Amino acid sequence: MKESSATIWRLRWITGPIFKLFKRVTPAMSQTEREALEAGNVWWDGELFSGRPKWGRLRKVPPPKLTTEEQAFLDGPVETLCSMIDDWKITHKDYDLPKDVWQYLKDNGFFSMIIPKEYGGLAFSALAHSEVVLKISTRSVSAAVTVMVPNSLGPGKLLLEYGTEDQKNHYLPRLAKGEEIPCFALTSPHAGSDAGAIPDYGIVCKQDFDGKKDVIGMRVSWDKRYITLGPVATLLGLAFKLYDPDHLLGDKEDLGITLALIPTDTPGVNIGRRHMPLNMMFMNGPNSGNDVFMPLDWIIGGQARIGQGWRMLVECLTDGRAISLPALSVGAGKLASRGIGAYARIRRQFKLPIGKFEGVEEALARIGGYTYMMDAARLLTVGALDRGEKPSVISAIVKYHLTEGMRKIVNDAMDIQAGAGICLGPRNIIGRVYQAVPISITVEGANILTRTMIIFGQGAIRSHPYIFKELEAMGNDDPDASLEEFDRALFGHIGFFFSNTFRSFFHGLTASLFVMVRGKRPVRRYHQQLTRISAAFALMTDLALMTLGGNLKRKEKLSGRLGDVLSYLYLASASLKHFEDNGCPKEEQPLIHWVSQHCLYKAQNALHGLLQNLPNRPVAWLARLVIFPLGRHFSPPSDKLGHQVAHLLITPSEIRDRLTKGLYIPDNNTETLGKLEQGFNKVITADHAEKKLYRGMKGYKPNYNGLDDLIEQGLKKNVITEEDAKLIREADEARTDIIQVDDFAPDYK
Fold it and tell me: Count of H helices and E strands in the chain?
């Protein structure tokens, strides 16, 4: 189509100079950065970047559901597995899972949840995978991690996505049956999270191998650490840089990051030593090799996949980030909500359950609110995965915020239990979870880097409606086509910027009241307010990029705050959808109000922090006037709302059951959580009788015989009945047992 004179003029005098400026100031993108950006796809994060999210699109997403087969697995093998586990014995005595548990895991397909049925696997959905890990984690973090690894970033996932047919046919059935135990070795002592700096290398060469002469292969040397299942693995996945100095494969010498599968009994492989990750006794350790020869067909995907290792890893990271670690984190939240909620109702001080103290209520409200928010984000994310989405930015959001949420929940649970929380032993349900928190924070990308570099650093380019298009245009080898593509993206971006500027100011002046969204009370108002935050976020993204350019990548505190805004938009979105999917029950309203107000307040504070620290002060001042023309509007959840959320955790209800659905509860009175459950029911049942007794005996002065004498006097005065007395004694007996802590002989080791 022939261009108009106006278009030609614009391309020459406006777009052309800007295009040259952009090419000059835009920093070069490394191969690993490019592959990370191109991995996965854009989903709801794109809507949140748009400044005007289409909430109807989110409402149309069906909530994920388990199949009959998946539910049967949870009710059968998973329940049985949990009943077999003694976490105290694993973590304090044996330092490993018992042999019968290992065998049960292998025999019942726990290592094959992601493997298709044609290879002997279970072929479970992401939801089922998540539910299995969640339930096991409420019984034993060590067992949960053991199940997580083969089903997330490991040889199985990589084989499924990229393996040759021969590799799949050979290894997948063996992995499904547990005949092979896999691990994957990525982290090197001198590289850490910097994949481009991996020092482990392979040299293409010829060597006699397996009775054959002059086999083209690689001599690989490596030194890895933190490798989960490494000490017991029979099949080692390995990441290394491959070089071809003799040009046996072509003209290039540096072939890039490559992945290979190595049987651990291969000569030269050093494996079997252990790390001790904070008393979480899952197998984890270092491994190494020096000039270990392996043929090219040991490369995952064969010779065609040489140099594609980093992209392969990034595309497969989603399972660990979006399924396993969030499931483990939500498991901790559900355990604390149920167990510590019961403890706060049972434990008494000053003749009052400690859960009714306002200070304890604050902690309980955070436990309940975070658990609800985290579970909603987990379910929305795994549902997206099951529909074929690969939301790489969202996977980073849930990895960071759910593991950080776990940290907050467990800290609050420890505060509520106080001395009972710090005394390790079989009675302590939260102590080992407390020790496990830093592990979740660290793996699959350390949380500091995930927040400050990945969430926004990847999201700003990948999810923004125009930035990625502009970068792609600059990379086009055809100068004319490149300029035209850039022109379309640039002027679309300019319109986008002014639209968000106007809407941010207008919504700020009108408190978002004129945002046109559909929705039911009480959540419609939150959709309006989140739309306002979305517009402000899109505006600040553009302002930060315009004023800092490529330097924004190094301003990690600023990009971390921008990532926080995006994250809280997603967490609030997920929670609102979860509430609507549940049918908007009135009893659940305290939870959705608490979460929504918490997310809005946190997002507002992140924007405020960004404006305070943006280097270009005139731009920051103008942006503050646009985004907060009448000041900051959002407040944290009120004390009254916190009281309502805390009350849900210490009172039997359908909402409490729904909030804690999926955790393992022993059906006996010999284990701590089972005792808490039964003691909670006894205390609730006896509550009416206790109130009658204490109210009717107001003038009574207790003697040395305490409660027994009070009950006897109450019976004599007909304040209570014999049935009341029985209920009170049973509740007191349960309470006395539950508040005990473990003690050991002085020479106990």
Answer: 33, 9
The answer to whether 515 and 528 are in contact (CB under 8 A) is yes
Residue 525: Cβ within 10 Å count: 16
Nearest partner of 143 among 303, 317, 324, judged by Cα = 324
Give the pairing type, strands 254-263 and 235-243. antiparallel
Return mean pLDDT, the chain: 89
Q: What are phi and psi of 161, to 5 degrees?
A: -80, -35
629 cis-preceded (ω within 30 degrees of 0):
no
Cβ atoms of residues 485 and 473 within 8 Å: yes
3-state secondary structure of 315: helix
DSSP H helices, 697-743, are 706-716, 722-738
391-433 confidence digits (pLDDT tens): 888 999 999 999 999 999 999 999 999 989 999 999 999 999 9
SS in 3 state form for 10-27?
A: HHHHHHHHHHHHHHHHCC
Query: How far is Cα of residue 554 from the mean position of the Cα atoms in its chain?
Result: 25
Measured distance CA(512)–CA(529) in Å, rounded: 6
Q: What residues does 212 pair with on adjacent strands?
A: 209
Q: What is the mean pLDDT of residues 285-296?
A: 94
Instruction: For domain 68-181, give the fold.
Output: Butyryl-Coa Dehydrogenase, subunit A; domain 1 (1.10.540)
Q: Up-side HSE of residue 607: CA atoms within 13 Å toward CB? A: 33
Which DSSP string corresponds to 196-212? GG---EEEEEEEEETTE
Please give the Cα distance from 320 to 339 (Å, whole number). Answer: 27
Distance of CA 248 to the CA centre of its chain: 44
Q: Give the pLDDT band (50/70/90) at residue 1.
A: very low
φ and ψ of 352, to 5 deg: -140, 140
Spelled out in words, what is the top-level CATH class assigned to the domain 183-299? mainly beta
pLDDT digits (tens, 9 = 90+) for 586-608: 999 999 999 999 999 999 999 99
Print burial letters for 723-743: b (CB count within 10 Å at least 16), e (below 16): ebbebbbbbbebbeebbeeee
pTM confidence score: 0.93
Separation of alpha carbons 250 and 17, rounded Å = 40
Tokens describing residue 558: 């600023």
Residue 444 among the catalytic residues: yes
DSSP reduced 3-state for 50:
coil
Q: Where are the beta strands (DSSP E) in 379-441?
A: none
Which value, in Å, is the radius of gyration of the alpha carbons in the chain? Answer: 29
DSSP-assigned letter for residue 77: I
Which tokens sit at 331?
A: 């498991």
CA atoms within 13 A of residue 376's CA, in its CB half-sphere: 25
| Locus of tokens 């690989």 | 220
Give me the sign of the Cα torsion angle 23, 26, 31, 35: negative
Fold classified for 313-445: Butyryl-CoA Dehydrogenase, subunit A; domain 3 (1.20.140)
Select from 409, 333, 403 the least CA-distant residue to 366.
Answer: 409
- Rounded to an integer, what is the distance from CA 567 to the centroid of its chain? 12
**Residue 521, class by beta-carbon neighbours within 10 Å (0-12 exposed, 13-18 middle, 19+ buried)?**
exposed
Give the whole-angstrom CA distance, residue 533 versus residue 51: 8
Please tell me the distance from the alpha carbon of residue 663 to that of residue 645, in angstroms, as a whole number.
Answer: 20
CB atoms within 10 A of CB 622: 13
Looking at residue 355, the DSSP 8-state letter turns out to be: G
Using an 8 Å Cβ cutoff, are 394 and 384 in contact?
A: yes
Helices (H), 210-308: none
Q: Terminal CA-to-CA distance of the chain, rounded, Å?
A: 83
Which residue of the set 47, 70, 444, 690 is catalytic? 444
